[in-house]
Amino acid sequence: MNIIVLGIDTSTAVSVGLARGSEVLVSLHYDDPRAHAEQLMPLIHRGCEEAGIALTDIAEVAIGVGPGPYTGLRVGVATGRVLAHLAGLTPHPVCSLDILARQWAGVDGEFVVCTDARRHELYWARYDASGHRLDGPNVTRPEDLPKDLPIGGPGCLVRGLTPTPGSPEHLDAGVLAASWQAMPDVGLEPLYLRDPDAMPRHVRRSMLNGIRDLNTMRHQQTGDPEIETRIKQYEMAWRMLPDAWNAGSDLCQRILCCLKKNAGRSCFEASGDCQ
Fold first, then answer.
1. Domain match, 145 and 28 both
2. Beta strands in 132-171 (DSSP E)
């Protein structure tokens, strides 16, 4: 039976795909590395609308778990895990570089795919002609990549490399949705490959409290409703930190509440109803 599969990846941009069996129904891509949280759920809803299905029709959830930068990657992994949990499904984690390799058909011999790791570095892996991963994922400077091999992926142009003609320019979550069974399960732990550039948790919480207090004072002075919305968004982001990712966490229950009460709206739009 051809079931509906949702594919999610935020290791680079925001990518959402839907497939019925091996047939890609929808593939959506939002290329803004700073808009993962704002765009992911609306993109999922849009994909369902374009495919003519309901969110409840999804029978499997496949998630690209990186490697990728800390902030964007955690949004996709957390959202995919929550959606799978709410539907009583087991999420299927896949290395994001494996998806890019799957997209690159017809390569003669070994090849390399890469994505931007920032800090003037690249995430990369090496594959054989069939798309089987031989090395990686790794994070290095561009000059340390394997020499004399075809190379592709969204990291090339960012780091001054010339991609091989025909190589994938961006990750296609439709391919993830249609082909996840052909790619190895790498576990649900996000593939950061290095520690995030972040301050200790208690310092972040203290800083967030200060920002909240300043915003509250400003809201009392002006009555601007956007300030109150901003406070709630900051708190939502705080609750999405890694220790809130467990499938039975309070975050999951909040999103469950939002999805049940607000069908047709994203859980981020509806978050204020589920406090």
1. no
2. 133-140, 151-152
Same domain assignment for residues 40 and 57: yes
pLDDT in tens, 189-200: 889 887 555 555
Taking phi first (over 0 means left), then psi (-120 to 50 degrees means alpha), and beta for anything else, what does residue 21 get? Answer: left
The predicted structure's pLDDT at residue 266: 41
Structure tokens at 189: 């732990």
Distance (Å, rounded) from C-alpha 44 to C-alpha 176? 14
pLDDT above 70 for 252: no
- Residue 265: which pLDDT band, with cuts at 50, 70 and 90? very low
Peptide bond into 137 cis (omega under 30): yes
CA distances from 99 to 9, 51, 176, 207 (A): 10, 21, 6, 38
Residue 66 shares a structural domain with residue 124: no
- Mark out the alpha helices in the chain (DSSP H runs): 36-51, 70-86, 96-103, 155-158, 173-179, 201-222, 225-239, 250-261
Task: Provide Rg for the chain, Cα atoms.
Answer: 19
Domain count, the chain: 3
Q: Which domain holds residue 222?
A: 201-274
Task: Output DSSP code: residue 46.
Answer: H
**Strand, helix or coil for residue 56:** helix
Nearest to 132 by CA among 105, 102, 103, 156: 102
| pLDDT at 95 (0 to 100) | 98
53 with 15, same domain: the answer is yes
Q: Which range is most confident: 133-137, 244-248, 270-274?
A: 133-137
Condensed to tens digits (0 to 9), the pLDDT of residues 147-187 reads 899 999 999 988 989 999 999 999 999 999 999 999 999 99
Is there a single domain that holds both residue 9 and residue 141?
no
